[in-house]
Amino acid sequence: MGVKKRISGCVATANAVKLADVEVICSYPIRPYTGIMSELARMVADGELDAEFVYGEGEHGQLSVVYGASAAGARAFTGSSGVGVTYAMEVYSPISGERLPLQMAIADRTLDPPGDFGSEQTDALCCRDQGWIQGWASTPQEALDLTLLYYRIGEDPRVLLPQYACQDGYFVSHILGEVDIPDAAQVKEFLPPYKNHHVLDPRNPQIIGAQMEPSMGPGMQYQRYQAIEGSRKVIEEVHEEFGRIFGRKYAPWVEEYMTDDAEVVIFMQGGHAETCKTVVKRLRNLGEKVGLVRLRTFRPFPTQQVRDALGRFKAVGVVDNSVNFGISGAAGVLLTEARTALYGLGDKVPTVGFVAGLGGEMITHDEFYKMFAKLKEVAKAGKADKQSYWLPFEL
Amino acid sequence: MTNLFEEPGLKQITVWARGVYENKEARDVVVAVTEAAALEGKFVQAWENYVDLPDRIYVPVRAYGKISDQEIESKYVYENETPDIVALTEETLVKGVDILAGIKPGAVLVINTKRPAEYLFKFIKKGTENLASIVTVDANSLAKSIITLSGAEGATDASGIGKGMGAALAAAIVKATGIVQFESLLKIVENKNAAKKAFEKAQVVDVKTLVNAG
Question: Model ipTM?
Answer without folding.
Answer: 0.93
